[in-house]
Amino acid sequence: MTVKVFDLQCEYGHTFEGWFSSHYEFDDQHSRKMIECPFCSSNKITKLVSAPYVNTKLSPDANNKKIDKSSGKVNILETQINIIKTIRKILKEAENVGPNFAEEARKINNGDAEKRAIKGTVTKEEHQSLQNDEIEVLSIPEFLEDPSSMH
């Protein structure tokens, strides 16, 4: 399987990679507003000019090692799997504060509440307000939640 990696940017300037099987797949998902910024959930995405990179080593036998010692290249698929597992572990251990996320994040930031990992929901306005106040928050797509913990 061949994967095309595009550098993407949302309307707020967040840059991230998108992996697609073709330019057509990107165009189709983009036109249906299926591509979302992992930082702020905006779906106003543009493709940046970048050097092309095509990953053609997604065969099962390529997944045995993180780094191919002969070439020094990182196995991207295995690296992504490990990142997703780590994010799921962090999310599982984070306290779910639900719709009180913005309020609780401000308390933690101001030292009025115990510093800890929290998760919850915010409106776009709350998210933008937290960013304006330089409080670091990260939008996590639902697919990163551990499927066994979802109802």
Plain-language structure description:
The protein has helices at 23-31, 76-93, 101-110, 124-132; strands at 3-10, 15-20, 45-47, 54-55, 67-68, 73-74, 95-98, 118-120. The protein is an alpha+beta fold and 151 residues long. It has two domains: 3-83, no CATH class; 94-145, no CATH class. The strands form three sheets. Strands 1, 2, 3 and 4 form a four-stranded antiparallel beta sheet that branches. The chain has a two-stranded antiparallel sheet with strand order 5-6. The model is unreliable at 58-65 (pLDDT under 50).
What descriptors fit this protein?
single chain; 151 residues; 2 domains; four-stranded antiparallel sheet; 20% strand; DUF1178; DUF1178 family protein
What is the topological layout?
Elements: E1 3-10, E2 15-20, H1 23-31, E3 45-47, E4 54-55, E5 67-68, E6 73-74, H2 76-93, E7 95-98, H3 101-110, E8 118-120, H4 124-132
Parallel strand pairs: 7-8
Antiparallel strand pairs: 1-2, 1-3, 1-4, 5-6
Distance separating the two termini: 33 Å
Structural category is: alpha+beta
Cα-based radius of gyration, to the nearest Å: 18 Å
Report strand %. Answer: 15-25%
User: What are the low-pLDDT stretches, counting only 5+ consecutive residues below 50?
Assistant: 58-65
InterPro entries: DUF1178 (IPR009562)
Organism: Candidatus Kinetoplastidibacterium blastocrithidiae TCC012E
Protein name: DUF1178 family protein
